[in-house]
Amino acid sequence: MISWNRFSAEIRLMVLETVLHNGCNLASIATVSQEWQRVIEKHNFSRIRLTPSRLPGFRAIYRNRSLVRYIWFCLELEEYDCTGCSPRDPELWDLSEMDNSLITKGLEDLFSVLSVWQPGGDLTLDISVYSPSDSQHGFKYLTFEPDTVSETQDEHRLVERPMLSKPCSGAGGPSATRTFEAICKVFGEIMSNSPFDNDEQERRWWQQLPLVPIVTRVLLRQQTRRRWRPYTLTQMFTRMPRLQEVHYEPWKEWLHTDIQQRWTDEVLQTLLEAPFLARLRKLVLFENFNTVYPASFGIFNSDPRRITSASMGRALVNASLNLDSLSASFLVDAVDFFEETRGRCLKWPNLRSLALTSELLRPAKNPTKLDDMLRAAAATALNMPNLETMELWNGLEEKAMLVRYRRARLRRPATIEWKGTWEMTLSDPVIEAWDAVALKYSNRACVTIGKLVVTATPIRSHGDAIRLLGLLEMVIRPVSLRQIVRENTILEEMGED
């Protein structure tokens, strides 16, 4: 028999990679050799799923701490039955005292465990808050998954789940529309009514938690429909002194009144103005929405997208000045962002990529205002010496549009291009404005490109639009994009479009 060590390093690596991905019991073969043990341990410990009940055992990990690169921390709330999935009492919409206590105790224990880890490499902390019952009642299509690096990774795991059954009787009866109460239940606010009576009590609680310098990236993905208070997130991120990257995918506020909108903007601004942002390198904000849910709100029915504001644009501009990468989708309109840069002597010395959405990128919108925005974007880009890409986009049902600037690279010239589902013409003043950017940083004018996209598959949602446009910047986590596309596909098949 040929010895394992007689094979070349390349062949041994191919065999090991096959073993790692064929679904066999890795623990049973880790003893084949020290080489196999090293590779399998690195694979097993690189990505870990934790729940509060598993933290005591996780605390005992010493030798393999340096192998951990990703922790998916699942805060599973109490389960409920059909009598509790659509509560009439508004006091039952937010999390219960038991659920909030579970969250605070879980965070206390997690921070205690991670605080003793020596900072060295990068560690991603991915936090999900959900009840296992959420996908058993009015939202049977929901999935709760770890983060992935691509859209297709692990997609086969979802095939076997029977998602097309109607919601239970408590969530809306035979009609597939979810009740107002069922939506409020799943979108309840985290740590709003308990265990703290006010913000000062919560601040003192966070201050007594140890620092966790090991965490460098935080993911708060859209599969958590419960709402984090921006104040809570500010306090949490303050306890992470080496935090460099945040991906935050909140859901839109459904009660779309002027008062509610102003309050939502005010609390979000406190997050964008928090001191921890000064040390971030990358910020990705994606405000998710669903065009079906508002139908359940009756007289409170609202547009699925938010009305953006100048104050939010100003806060995002100020937050962006030290970043390497910024993406903000639907939370802020690009018009407000660039308007807030006018007349200010601002510089973005590190910014390499910028992605923003705008309602002006829709058919039949005012072309003069669109030209003004694109010229303002170019004027802002003049103060971004390291900018490689700027993507301005929008997408909803059946419509999608992208305007993208790419800096000259290697022997390729800078480009200003549009790509979308309707014809767009970039005016001469817009092209001249972007030529000025290209000439400043590459001594060559832009090449203008236009691409009309015709697709045989329907654009059901903003998720389909993102796929169609082929954005270079990761505006949303790949697994979140897959979940959005899948949810809207299933809702259409259930007749909820």
TrEMBL record:
Q: A Pfam family in this protein? A: DUF6546
Its domain of life?
Answer: Eukaryota
Stretches assigned to the DUF6546 domain = 279-477
Alphabetized InterPro entries for the sequence: DUF6546
Its name, as the record gives it, is: DUF6546 domain-containing protein
